[in-house]
Design brief:
Structural class: alpha+beta
Number of helices: 12
Largest sheet: 14 strands, mixed
Shape: globular
Oligomer: single chain
Distance between the termini: 20 Å
Helix content: 25-40%
Strand content: 15-25%
Number of strands: 14
Order of helices and strands: EEHEEHHEEHEHEHHEHHEEEHEHEH
């Protein structure tokens, strides 16, 4: 069987796997001006199709032969893809989505014992199939005009449809990642019925802006937050930095490319100049008109940047990069200077993504939980599922410590023995 022949059925829904490449033209209504969520914009989905770290496909969902949704599927044949979309490696790898140091002593001992028993490369769980799009979002793009109830019905059908497609492709693990409210509880019930295990992956930090301008915004802060803002902005300005905004495709220039290469090298991310250049070329060509780069400029040199993608009245942080001599600029540029620019340019919402929750929460962001569901069928599958439970607990604790606890999905409120598992394969 070729991948283009894979189809699945669940209730009134049919799903079919389309060949690798751009999403169908009929969904271009989600392009410029058509969506306020960049991760389900057709231009963004075309950008993701150009990755060389995963094999990307489009899953088309039909209801009674009418197209109702599209989703990006990432096939990972061997270890080495992007960690946050590589399900076998994501389970049990200490990272922003697993913080074992927050577990109780007994839980930490269990984590250490279980992870030590797993092969580092998890080769028995590949190929692996994940439904998600880069940006830590599920990226399901619904046909225009669908009601909230109709959209939820698609979301609840996806776990079963995805597992059928995974089976037909011969995959040994399956994941549906980065689902938030209002769909999470219903997706959890549907996913648990067919054998997935839920894990809290983190929370999207979103800064809602209700002020009309910068002065009104600052005046509306608590005295504590106002002091912190003034301290960080004053330090930024006294160090000789100013902020310059560049929009459109030309924002992704050679200076930004070099800073991104250095950033990825510093944090051990896959990269190098050629890879970053290809990534930025694709971004420029597919969605360049939505790019906004805020640069920290010192004596006419850009020493740091934050790259955002604009959709309607929202900004979505894509990546940042700073030269060593600008390391202290991160907070001022990414939060305060970004907010200033946003208020001057009609932005009402800034999405900062996952991790570094304390800094984001302290600077006014709401933390919106993102859940994932995993099904492993290779060796040590139950060990991986146990690890996922501990992983979820650690992130649940992280959000509790920050002061923004996540409401658990139904399967995470039950003891492990009460979780319904699918039939063994």
């Amino acid at each position: 069987m070729t991948t283009t022949e894979a189809t699945a059925h669940h209730g009134s829904f049919t799903a079919r796997l389309l060949p690798p490449g751009p999403h169908p033209a009929h969904h271009d209504a989600t392009g410029p001006g058509g969506s306020d969520l960049i991760w389900d914009d057709a231009r963004w989905l075309r950008f993701t199709a150009r990755t060389d770290l995963h094999e990307t496909h489009c899953l088309e969902v039909l209801e009674e032969d009418r197209p109702v949704a599209l989703a990006t599927l990432l096939v990972t044949h061997t270890p080495g893809g992007l960690l946050f979309y590589d399900a076998p490696r994501l389970a049990g790898t200490a990272s922003p989505m697993a913080e074992p140091e927050l577990l109780d002593e007994d839980e930490r001992e269990q984590w250490d014992r279980l992870t030590a028993s797993l092969p580092e490369d998890r080769t028995g769980h590949y190929p692996s199939l994940t439904l998600a799009t880069f940006g830590n979002h599920h990226g399901v793009a619904h046909t225009a005009g669908r009601s909230p109830e109709q959209r939820r019905s698609v979301m609840t059908a996806l776990p079963a449809l995805l597992q059928q497609i995974s089976d037909q492709l011969g995959c040994r693990s399956t994941a549906l990642l980065y689902v938030g409210e209002p769909e999470a509880a219903e997706v959890d019930a549907a996913a648990t019925r067919v054998g997935y295990h839920a894990t809290l992956l983190g929370a999207d930090a979103v800064h809602e802006l209700s002020a009309d301008d910068w002065e009104q915004y600052v005046a509306g802060l608590s005295s504590r937050r106002r002091r912190g803002l003034r301290k960080e902005v004053t330090a930024y300005e006294n160090s000789g930095f100013r902020t310059v905004a560049t929009t459109g495709p030309e924002a992704l220039d050679d200076t930004v490319t070099a800073l991104q290469v250095a950033h990825r090298a510093k944090y051990g991310l896959p990269g190098g100049h050629e890879r970053v250049r290809r990534d930025f070329d694709a971004l420029r060509e597919e969605i360049g008109e939505s790019c906004v780069v805020l640069g920290a400029v010192h004596e006419d040199r850009v020493l740091g940047f934050a790259l955002y993608l604009r959709a309607g009245d929202a900004l979505f942080l894509r990546t940042v990069g700073f030269a060593p001599e600008a390391s202290g600029c991160y907070l001022a540029l990414t939060y305060h200077e970004t907010t200033r620019w946003a208020l001057e340019n009609g932005i009402r919402r800034i999405h900062y993504g996952l991790a570094t929750y304390e800094a984001k929460f302290q600077r006014g962001c709401a933390l919106r939980p993102r859940w994932g569901w995993f099904a492993f069928h290779g060796p040590d599958a139950e060990v991986l599922h146990e690890v996922l439970g501990l992983q979820s607990r650690s992130i649940e604790r992280r959000l509790e410590h920050v002061g923004s606890p996540a409401t658990p999905v139904p399967s995470r409120t039950l003891p492990p023995s009460s979780t319904v598992h699918g039939a063994a394969r």
